[in-house]
Amino acid sequence: MDRNDEFSSITNALKNKSVVLGIIIVVSFLFILILKPWVQIGAGERGVVLNFGAVQPIVLGEGLHFRMPVMQQVVKMDVKVQKATTDATASSSNLQEVSSTVAINYHVIPDKANVVYQSIGLDFKARIIDPAVQEVVKAVSAKYSAEDLITKRSSVSDAMKSTLTERLLVHNIAVDAFSIVGFSFSKIYMDAIESKQTAEQLAMKAERDLERIKIEGEQTITSAKAEAEALRLQRANISTDLIELRKIEANLKAIEKWNGILPQVTGNGAIPFIGVGDVIKK
Predict the structure, then answer these.
(1) Helix 130-141 crosses helix 153-169 at what angle (to 10 degrees)?
(2) Mind giving me the DSSP string for 7-53?
(3) Whole-angstrom Cα distance, residue 88 to residue 102?
(4) What order do you get walking across the sheet with 45-51 strand by strand?
(5) b/e string for 118-135 if b means 16 or more Cβ within 10 A?
(6) Which pLDDT score is estimated for 30?
(7) What is the distance, to the nearest Å, from the Cα of residue 97 to the centroid of all Cα atoms in its chain?
(8) Which domain holds residue 74?
(9) For a disulfide at 134, which of 8, 35, 88, 204, Cβ 3.0-4.6 Å?
(10) 100 with 47, same domain?
């Protein structure tokens, strides 16, 4: 074999090895993609590591993590704050049926995500939260009358939140907020409350009217007393000198109006020109 043939065979062998190597690389890459030996944990999530289905103590935080293909599986759990709304029926201390709607904000404690998954699973709202809310609503509502459930709503809400927090914390679930969306009672009880409120409003109106009449009466009496006192003072100030002064003032006004002609009527029936002499003398 000459040198050209030898060189050609070496070149072909290298080409064949390159092709085989390329095929191996491609197959390996595809195999890796299929096995996917990594996992990405997103924001607000935690990864629960399972070795052949067994929950491990480690909890994966946010970011990229590697796992052992086939052997290890990573389950993602949402640990962000979530909202749950639950309807509950209870009885008040005075045996009135109460229907309420409760809304809570909660989250799984991040470091305990593996424990929650192991003991409860992913459907913890239906398994734990809803039953706990219903039990708490019944227990707290039984301590208050139906009227207190309305008038002391903030106290009732605080009591329910405190009790529910303790109950869910046992299951590694934290309560962030609690609110009572609404209370509703039977129609008979609601009608009774409305009648009571109407009666109270009418009683308050009657009381206000009575007070107004009383004040107006007192004002009338005060005004009458003031007028009587003014008349008394006027009578006390009238004296003989004042009467004579009023006569003189009247005569002076009559003189001012006299035209200088004496009356033509004489006799016993004549009306004398009273007071003129007295005025002239003075």
Answers:
(1) 140
(2) HHHHHHHHHHHHHHHHHHHHHHHHHHHHH--EEEE-TTEEEEEEETT
(3) 8
(4) 54-60, 45-51, 72-78
(5) eebeeebeeebbbebbbe
(6) 66
(7) 24
(8) 3-78
(9) 88
(10) no
Please spell the DSSP secondary structure of 90-159, one letter per residue: EE-TT--EEEEEEEEEEEE-GGGHHHHHHHT-S-HIIIIIHHHHHHHHHHHHTTS-HHHHHHTHHHHHHH
Among the candidates 51, 78, 105, a domain finishes at 78
| Residues 7 and 74 both lie in one domain | yes
Under 8 Å between Cβ of 39 and 77? no
Residue 43 lies in a domain: yes
Q: What is the CATH number of the domain that holds 103?
A: 3.30.479.30
pTM of the model: 0.58
- 235 DSSP assignment: H
Which of 103-107, 126-130, 268-272 has the least mean pLDDT?
268-272
Kindly state whether residue 49 falls inside one of the protein's structural domains. Answer: yes
| Domain tally, the chain | 3
With pLDDT > 70 as the criterion, what percentage of the chain qualifies? 71
State both tokens at 52.
């052949």
